[in-house]
Write a structure and sequence with these properties.
The protein has two domains: 249 residues, Beta Polymerase, domain 2, CATH 3.30.460; 36 residues. Helix 4 packs across helix 5. The longest helix has 67 residues. The chain is rod-shaped. 59% of the residues lie in helices and 13% in strands. The chain is of the alpha+beta class and 324 residues long.
Length: 324
């Protein structure tokens, strides 16, 4: 269900893994006796603000949190409910994974209200599961399954980054070039950005797992614990990938510096060989009287032989000093 007033989904859970879609009138007529209700809204629409502020029955502070433009992952207990803000990787076509997508929720034992700005594929997964009769049965199931799907979708992104780090390390071993340096810099930027957004969610998941909300059952808490462990592993994998990228970048920089030093050393040796030759030829080329061998027909050959012998002496001297 999609409307211009901000309502994306409104589903009355049947307690068996399925649900019934509602419209605005169904939401207004809903009572807790009918069963758990999930309302999913687009907070960029004015209808969402109007309903949250005037008809939802939520405190103004909660309504404001559900429509905040910028937020970070958190879990705050409020009365019998939980105010959650979670993030997921942006899996929408044409989007960058590190461009995280956030979702805000206020959940109680009777109702879950969630809001978003951009489309979340994890929400689509939940709706599809409900349509197939394999979705959440309670609000606790809904929160646990949503958190699990948000974190599960991060697996592919983290694994892809690790594979790209492996490829970059292989390129550093086999070849060193400015292109590899740019690739590693891009990887480090992506890893740092992704970790920056994912790490706070680990703390939010830990707080959610330790919350005392009575409507979170034992199975829900086990699932949340698994999700918390999974996102902790994601953060650790990102830390490892960041360190590996840093080591690869340092190794690549070191190899490039060695190449540059080797080339500069070779040029210095060549310059050292030709420096005395240039001095002598320049000295003999001045147009003044008294130049040695100027009137000798074998003078030119003698000078050439002398210069060749000088180069040979220099090469022998450099070899003895192990300069090359």
């Amino acid at each position: 269900m999609t409307t211009d007033d901000g309502l994306l989904y409104a589903i009355l859970l049947d307690g068996e893994g399925g649900g019934k879609a509602l419209d605005w009138s169904g939401i207004r007529e809903w009572t807790p006796a009918q069963g758990p209700l999930w309302v999913h809204l687009d907070f960029t629409r004015p209808g969402t603000h109007r309903w949250l502020e005037q008809e939802s029955g939520l405190e103004p502070l909660i309504a404001e949190a559900l429509t905040a433009d910028e937020t970070r992952p958190r879990c705050e207990p409020i009365d019998e409910g939980l105010l959650l803000s979670l993030r997921g990787v942006n899996s929408n076509p044409g989007s960058e994974p590190e461009d995280m997508v956030s979702i805000r929720l206020f959940a109680t034992g009777e109702r879950v209200i969630s809001t978003r700005r951009r489309k979340l594929l994890s929400i689509a997964d939940l709706v599809q599961a409900l349509e197939q009769g394999q979705g959440p049965r309670t609000t606790g199931d809904l929160v646990a399954m949503l958190a699990d799907r948000l974190i599960e979708r991060m697996i592919g992104v983290v694994n892809d980054l690790e594979e790209r780090i492996d490829e970059a390390e292989e390129r550093v071993i086999s070849e060193a070039g400015q292109g590899s340096r740019a690739t590693i810099q891009d990887l480090r930027r992506e890893i740092i950005l992704l970790r920056r957004y994912i790490a706070p969610q680990r703390d939010a998941m830990n707080r959610l797992n330790l919350s005392k909300a009575a409507w979170l059952g034992k199975r829900n808490r086990l699932q949340l614990r698994e999700s918390s462990d999974m996102i902790t592993r994601h953060v650790e994998d990102l830390d490892s990938a960041r360190d590996r990228a840093g080591v690869a970048y340092e190794e690549l920089s070191s190899r490039l510096d060695e190449q540059m030093n080797s080339r500069m050393y070779l040029l210095s040796l060549i310059a050292g060989l030709f420096l005395p030759l240039g001095f002598l030829t320049g000295l003999l080329g001045i147009n003044v009287g008294g130049i040695p061998l100027a009137d000798n027909p074998l003078g030119f050959i003698g000078v050439v032989v002398f210069l060749v012998l000088l180069v040979v002496v220099q090469v022998i001297l450099f070899r003895r000093k192990k300069w090359f």
